[in-house]
## 1
Amino acid sequence: MARVDPLLLEHPAPAATVIADKAYDAKRLRSALAERGSRAVIPFRNTARAPQPLERKLYAERNLIERAFNRLKDYRRIATRFDKLARNFAAAVAKTAIRLWYLI
């Protein structure tokens, strides 16, 4: 199973839906999300014994997020994380995201 940061699952306001790829297909993760009241939209691996149907339309929206991260990583400062402080890096990401949004 892919390692998931426990802080992501312990957030005070859980996400209504969590969309992830096949790498996150694990019973522990699915049950932890269900306990938090989140719906998991994660495709089952090809080796799953009893795969459940996947909400394809909702899963397709994951592509938008992936493309956004790829566009952000086109900027060298973001891709290599030159900033040492998290607040400076977050500011650089926000500034770059605004620039990309404005150019679209």
## 2
Amino acid sequence: MNEWDQDNLSFLLNSSPETLADWYEKMDKSDIDYAFKLLAIAKTELDVKEMYINDDITDTNEAAAVIAKIQSKLT
């Protein structure tokens, strides 16, 4: 994720419900799709970080499947 994406993600995560509602009303479908992709990427990054926090995890097949599913939706 580049700096532009990170700034947009920050907006999505930190805006008030009113600000998001106003933004949503002004955006077209491609903008909303982009926002959902950013949120999906951020979720995947958090899921991967969580895996590294828990040293007891030895089977990463489930995480790999989640990442593959998200990546397939981004293309």
## 3
Amino acid sequence: MAARDDAETIKWYEKGAERGNVFALFNLGMAYLKGIGVARDYVEAYKWLHLSATKGYDDAPAICEALEKKSQAKT
């Protein structure tokens, strides 16, 4: 996917996330986790993934837990 397409996708994920769309929240978190369309940022990734987890996205809790463990290993 081209960088321009990635930026457009992120824009739509952000709009959906503002409305509380669980899929947008999760996908925005994954974008930050992988650095797709945005700079890689584990804190932002955790924030969006955690929000999707609180709204019931099944895959999000395990990813949040892995990020927590990664963070704890660095301290």
